[in-house]
Amino acid sequence: MRFLIRWFFRGVRLILTPFMLIGERLSRPRGIERDPADQARVDEQTRHLALYHFPACPFCIRARRTMQRLSLDIELRNAQAAGPHREALQTEGGKLQVPCLRIEEPDGQVRWLYESDAIGEYLRERFDPNRPDGRSGDAAVSGDSHA
Asked: Burial code of 61-80, b = ≥16 C-beta within 10 A, e = fewer?
């Protein structure tokens, strides 16, 4: 019985995956526009981030949409198939769960952030120039704080 259930859901996934990917592509949010110097600073900081994802996972699509909305160039690492990205997620991250944002801190330590809500909040807090707390994107990006 388990065998039939597993094959049923694989079939459903096989049918729905193209529709989910096409839907994501057709409904991409417009990214924010930054001054070229600000965008260069953001791009430099995003070099220390990587998103482990499955292409058709709805939660991964949500995380990628947040990245698009904030105009973030974060490396995408597909962890669905067996390979180095899946293995790194399992061994270094501690669990095979996506989406997962790998954050390399300035001191060299690596942090693994799971859950699309937590990833979205982290990215908005760090890179959104229109933050509700009144901080500018520059302050959020450069790490400056207003007291």
From this structure: bebbbbbebbbbebebbebe
